[in-house]
Amino acid sequence: MLNNLFDRNLLYIKLEVPFFSIQNFGMHLHAYQIQEILGKEVFSDYWVFSFVRNPREREVSEYHYALKNPNHREHRAISALRDFDDFIRWRFSVDKLNCKSQKSYLVDIDGKMLANYVGNTSTIDEDLKHICNRFGIEDVAIARKNSSNHSAYQEYFNSETQRAVREFYQDDIEEFGFEFDS
Fold first, then answer.
1. Mean pLDDT score across all residues of the chain
2. 3-class SS letters over the chain
3. In this structure, how many other beta carbons lie within 10 angstroms of the beta carbon of residue 129?
4. Mean pLDDT of the 149-161 span
5. pLDDT score for 169
6. For range 46-52, the mean pLDDT
7. Partner of 38 for a Cys bridge, out of 6, 9, 42, 158, CB 3.0 to 4.6 A?
8. How deeply is 76 buried, as exposed, middle or buried, from its count of CB atoms within 10 A (0-12, 13-18, 19+)?
9. Burial label, 121 (beta-carbon count in 10 A; 0-12, 13-18, 19+)
10. Taking CA 124 as the corner, what is the angle to CA 6 and CA 21, rounded to the nearest 5 degrees?
């Protein structure tokens, strides 16, 4: 599928793993880094899209993924924590360098959005259909990968962890319109 995307001047910025692998850049390239690699002129020829996720859902997913995956960079540290509450406290203090807002991956150094379209994982089928229709691509089915079996993300949060996630991800909540009640 990626070859078709490049043929149509589409550039998908995946927040978890970049669309291509470049040594010495790590796993998480920001859009402005990709723009620097490709050059502004070439980058501007692409229609850039990405998907974001509700911050609370993102944290619950990260917690479970790290616990079940011994190869995760923070598996040992997270496995030593008592519970999800400890994970959130740890995440926004000790692990702060590895934890970034989703918006930060999609903007340039001046905060200007570089993505032409940002979909939401909660409406991924509809949003992907919109992208495909825009470029005359037949609808594609998304395979679910790395899914974990756990309770609804809302059940993990108390007032302290809710507040911590809301404060840390304030940019994402405002930029992408996430509902963040209670």
1. 83
2. CHHHHHHCCEEECCCCCCCCCCCCCCCCCCHHHHHHHHCHHHHHCCEEEEEECCHHHHHHHHHHHHHHCCCCCCHHHHHCCCCHHHHHHHHCCCCHHHCCCCHHHHECCCCCECCCEEEEHHHHHHHHHHHHHHCCCCCCCCCCCCCCCCCCHHHHCCHHHHHHHHHHCHHHHHHHCCCCCC
3. 15
4. 90
5. 94
6. 91
7. 42
8. exposed
9. middle
10. 40
Block residue for tokens 């390239």? 29
Cα→Cα distances 113→20, 25, 26, 91, 151, Å:
21, 21, 22, 26, 33
Instruction: Please report, as a single letter, which amino acid is at residue 82.
Output: R
Residue 75, amino acid: H
